[in-house]
Automatic annotation (TrEMBL):
This is Tryptophan synthase beta chain. It comes from the Bacteria. It comes from Bacteroides caecimuris. Pfam families: PALP. Its cofactor is pyridoxal 5'-phosphate. Residues 57-379 form the Tryptophan synthase beta chain-like PALP domain. The lineage of its organism: Bacteria, Pseudomonadati, Bacteroidota, Bacteroidia, Bacteroidales. Transmembrane segments: none annotated. It is an enzyme of class 4 (lyase).
């Protein structure tokens, strides 16, 4: 049977690898040689599991959404990553990476952030472990996510607004990589998604795989079987999606549905739908699908959701799409907003704009009444209230 997981060279099929400047070669090599040995050790697992339980509040609930199930004609469960400490799935990864950084003797932590959730999660674990924290965030995102910016500062992080490009996630990642190039010896870069050079896509997927590990146990308890018929998650870089599908990736009984950001429509040029529009290229150290023009220049992406506003996609997901293992749907801004309001009114849960894209996929799918569907609510919507309200005023 074909495996969709990473090979020993850091590739998922033809996607992945490590394309880094010479100055970072040693850092990436060091990380590649150590990450598996550390994260598979008993000591690491014990500390990681204890922090996930006592600090993050795991396991996160698998909630049977009764009213949405009736509407969409299936048994719909919501994996509630929004209930984690800091309000999203991002903390699963930052706790794992800060433990690794500490074991590698690094003292200075840098990160990039879009919606601010990864920035907050990084600042949180740096406060916990008493480490210096610098977060790069596009100026556009600083303005639309100012509550998360204030949280990061309160936690002791230095937030650096990035003014290049369209001042969003791609640009903050560029700046974080520049910083890493200038301080390779003492700095550990906590990447927030399944993007970047190997071993980051694999490492982030493994740390987030606690999501699907829990889904297996929770479904066994609730349904008497440990697999769903469908898994649904939003995908930008792809960390919550990778965590949701990790333990099912080679199980062909399970359909995988990924929802990417359609923006104002894939035909408008105002979009971040990388799978629909991307061509093979290299971005931030990995070979993957990239939204680019005929000259190979990266196009500026657009999404109402700061966390999905990225012109690339994690190589794990590019490969799943290329091999037709995942069905990737583009969900437009208005479809995501409508789905968010529906979840709020039907189930009393206000989702993050990113998660709202996964919810927007439900209308585009047909289910049988006996189908078991698990949809990951990757984060809570507190950070997006102003966007929701301003969009609502326009309706």
């Amino acid at each position: 049977m074909k495996s969709f997981l990473v090979d020993q060279d850091g590739y998922y099929g033809e996607f992945g690898g490590a394309y880094v400047p010479e100055i970072l070669h040693k850092c990436v090599e060091e990380l590649t040689s150590k990450y598996l040995e550390v994260i598979e050790s008993k000591e690491f697992k014990k500390e990681f599991d204890q922090l996930l339980r006592d600090y993050v509040g795991r396991p996160s609930p698998l909630y049977p959404a009764q009213r949405l199930s009736e509407k969409y004609g299936c048994k719909l469960y919501l994996k509630r990553e929004d209930l984690n400490h800091t309000g999203a799935h991002k903390i699963n990864n930052t706790i794992g990476q800060i433990l690794l950084a500490r074991r590698m003797g690094k003292k200075r932590i840098i990160a990039e952030t879009g919606a601010g959730q990864h920035g907050v999660a990084t600042a949180t674990v740096c406060a916990l472990m008493n480490m210096e924290c610098i977060v790069y965030m596009g100026k556009t995102d600083v303005e639309r996510q100012h509550i998360n910016v204030e949280k990061m500062k309160m936690l002791g992080a230095t937030v650096i607004p990035v003014t290049s490009g369209n001042m969003t996630l791609k640009d903050s990642t560029n700046e974080a990589i520049r910083d890493w190039c200038c301080h390779p010896a003492d700095t550990y870069y906590i990447i927030g998604s399944t993007v970047g050079p190997h071993p980051y896509p694999d490492m982030v997927a493994r740390l987030q795989s606690v999501i699907s590990e829990e889904i297996k146990k929770q479904l066994q308890e609730k349904e008497g079987r440990d697999y769903p018929d469908y898994l649904i998650a939003c995908v930008g870089g792809g960390s919550n999606a990778a965590g949701t599908i990790y333990h099912y990736i080679n199980d062909e009984r399970v359909g995988i549905i990924l929802a990417e950001a359609g923006g104002k429509g894939i035909e408008t040029g105002m979009t971040a739908a990388t799978i629909q529009l991307g061509k093979m290229g290299i971005i931030h150290g990995a070979r993957t699908y990239v939204i680019q023009n005929e000259d190979g220049q990266i196009e500026e992406p657009y999404s109402i959701s700061a966390g999905l506003d990225y012109p690339g996609i994690g190589p794990i997901h590019a490969n799943l799409a290329a091999q037709s293992r995942a069905n990737v749907l583009a969900i437009n801004d208005d479809e995501a907003i409508e789905a968010a309001y529906e979840l709020t009114k039907f189930e009393g849960i206000i989702p993050a704009l990113e998660s709202a894209h996964a919810l927007g996929a439900l209308k585009k799918l047909k289910f049988k009444p006996e189908d078991i569907v698990v949809l990951t609510v990757s984060g809570r919507g507190d950070k997006d209230i102003e966007t929701y309200l301003s969009f609502n005023e326009q309706l």
